Amino acid sequence: MKQVAVTGGKISVEEVPPPVPSEGMALVQTAFSLISSGTESAFLSTGGAAGLALKKVLDPVTREKFKHNLASTGIRSTWTLVQNKLFDTQAPGYGCAGIIAETGPGVLHLRQGDRVACSGVGYACHAELNSVPHQLITPVPDGVDLDEAAFVSLGAVACQAVRRAAPSFGEIFIVSGLGLVGQLTVQVLKAAGCQVIGCDPLPFRRQLAESLGADLSCAPEDLAEASWQNSGGFGVDGVLVCAASKDSSAVNEALRACRQKGRVIVAGAVGMHLEREALYLKELDFGLSCSYGPGRYNPLYEEQGLDYPIGHVRWTQGRNMAAFLLMIRDKRVQVRPLIHLQVSVDEAPAAYDAIQHRKEVIAALLEYPAPAQQSAQTPFKRVYVLRASPNKKKELAVSVFGAGAFASGILLPALKGVPGCRLHSLACATGLHAQKWAKRFQADACSTDYKELLKDPALDAVFITTRHHLHKAMALDAIAAGKHVFVEKPLALTTEACEEICDAAQKQGVLLAVGFNRRFAPLSLRAQQLFSGTKQAHLLLYRCNAGALPPDHWALDPLQGGGRILGEAVHFFDYACWFFQDVPRTIQAECAAPAQRGKGIDSVSVSLLFSRGALATVLYTGDGSSLLEKEYIEIHGTESSLTIHDFKQLTPYGIGAGKITARRIDKGHTSLITHFIRAIQGHEALSVSGEDGRLATYIAEETLRQINAFHKDTL
Questions:
Q1: Which of 111, 292, 308, 543 is least crowded, fewest Cβ atoms below 10 Å from its Cβ?
Q2: Rounded Cα distance, 306 and 559, in Å
């Protein structure tokens, strides 16, 4: 399928595999998608994702982290990280209309062939096919054409802004900023029975607003006079600020234009340095409108499909979308006069150029080939062959499922250097990213459907690097297909799931490895050598200063990531078990002040007493300073000790060896990946197994059980 992409601020149209609708989502075959002169144009004017990433890189805090990363991991690793950020590929768009092509599990109210409109950044993209959560899809009523329905996202923005202003029949409102959202807001206010004054510096926008129902219009410098003259000298009842500007003039002009106890609602991206006097003396109500309405930015609503009860929240994101389409049906809102350019998706770069450089173009429609009726007998092609396979029988063919930071920054570069294997394919939920990384690392094929890749008998092994909740199903499917499997930690989110995966691998006779790389780090192997023979270690301290994650990070979601103890601390539990070559006899866990944190369990102390008497303590925290090294290991034996600082420096004490300082941090990723490949080839015995993954998950589960039991009244 064709999809518009933004890379480094440049627009292109790419051929990518279509997505697969997962649970709660539907696949929409796009007829039209909308480009606005506001959000998307502003995004491109900053250089797109590259510009935003560069701005972030130049931030003082980020620069300090950059310096620390440079010192610890080296130039090559740091430069790769920066490049991935600067040249990230984004899928623009947030409003489209088309027909339902497929539905995922749990979608009962939508059927194949239904005419629908969709919203949502990252979902309603400029693509022939989009996988969209059902909460962000609304049926298109009879009497509304699909080109009109493509305005649904910005229409919902206008509806929510008007609802926040709570207008009454006969009130006078100003709409400041007559871009696309402003033009729609004018019409929604008129439909609510208000008198409307449009305000914008561009004459053609003011004329357009008057043609769509505004009672009059003015330039910003004339706003105060227009307000007093048309309100009997009292000032208008309210102002909706739909402008986009870095300064605060639009907001402050709005404050001055309002009557006593009037209201100002900001729906645009403007400066917010408010003049207090106007707010104070007039006792104005001031507020912001959150995009489409309640549900926006709430993953429980947008991604997991949990709706707000209508008795408590009347107008949600989805209900605003539906209401706007009804207004189009009833001719209370016109959108076709706003379409100044309509081109095929192949001409998307020209459309974006017009949006950016032609002031008279405030909306452009991308048109797609007429949606064809799809059936189960004619499935979409979801595997794209990028190059012919070299057909070297001695080469091991591997596939990577997932293209996140670990896969793109560590796994895929490492695989390039492993002899005797080639990248058969790469699977990712979004076709754009699947194609991008497959091309960069010269994969034979890319796909959005890993199950299709598993059907290829030429495929020998898979690396699973997706979000944690997907590990179990993907691993079982790959094992059932007879493929060797490498699963990035954790193996699964429960001990029971780990056992199921291990049993399946044993029955199928395939190798199963887990991504516990730290036991393969050169300094770890050296430490184990130093404590061999008579110098037996019996005490180990592993401190991890993991750093904070944003509260909405997927790793903290119990359904997707399982939390940080299951998601990351398993690394350190495994390390202790590997170093002592033993299984814990007892596990004792405690959490630091969870009630004060209110953000989940991410600061713990876990003591592991092993059957042969060794003791390990894992101290894991998400609260420490980013300037402190992430990982520190201290090991003690008979009259001997050593420390490992962030896998870059090993310092022995009483062992008769000198200090080792590496040129860069090496946590063993490449060695582990090479080991797995060589084990498949029969050159080595696999030394990190699914059973190791099961044990680490068990320790994590027991840790969480103890902490939750002790703090049940405070968590």
A1: 111
A2: 14
